[in-house]
Amino acid sequence: MNQLSRKEQILNMLVSEPNDVFLNYALAMEFVSSNELNQADEQLKKVLSIKTDYLPCFYQLGQVNEKLNNNDIALTYYKQGVDLAKSQNNHKALGELNEAIWMLED
Fold first, then answer.
1. Residue 61 parent element (H or E)
2. Amino acid 3: pLDDT
3. What is the pLDDT of residue 2?
4. Across the chain, what does the average pLDDT equal?
5. Which residues contact 26 (CB under 8 A, 6 or more apart)?
6. Confidence tier at 4 by pLDDT (50, 70, 90)
7. What does the alpha-carbon distance between residue 12 and residue 18 come to, in Å, rounded to a whole number?
8. Looking at residue 54, what DSSP letter applies?
9. Which CA distances in Å does 16 have to 5, 13, 36?
10. What is the CB neighbour count within 10 angstroms for residue 100?
């Protein structure tokens, strides 16, 4: 019996729950882990279209765009994430986002 990959399992679940934030984010992370960066970028944007304040997306979009050599776009996502992290009082994410900005601007 063939085991479905994690990506295939997520895709199957998305059929019945296409707007599930966690499933869409999990699929994006599968794309990141398999270095399918353009698909990851699109999937992360889909997550934000479902939930505009899903903070983890901003860091991941920054990371993906850095890898795609879109540094200006990466900075934009990091800075949007900083604003959101401040509004959500999320100090851990704020630190990670600020460090990413610092590293990219260095």
1. helix 56-67
2. 86
3. 66
4. 96
5. 10
6. confident
7. 10
8. -
9. 18, 6, 24
10. 22
Question: Are 37 and 68 in contact, with CB atoms under 8 Å apart?
Answer: yes
Residue 39 has φ and ψ, to the nearest 5°, of -65, -40
* Contact between 104 and 71 (Cβ < 8 Å): yes
Residues 6+ apart with CB under 8 A from 17: 23
Residue 76 DSSP one-character state? H
- Type of residue numbered 55: L
**What residues have CB less than 8 Å from 78, skipping those under 6 apart?**
58, 59, 62, 97, 100, 101, 104
Do 97 and 85 form a contact (C-beta atoms < 8 A)? yes
Q: Where are the domains of the chain?
A: 6-105
Residue predicted with more confidence, 27 or 3: 27
Output the CATH code of domain 6-105: 1.25.40.10
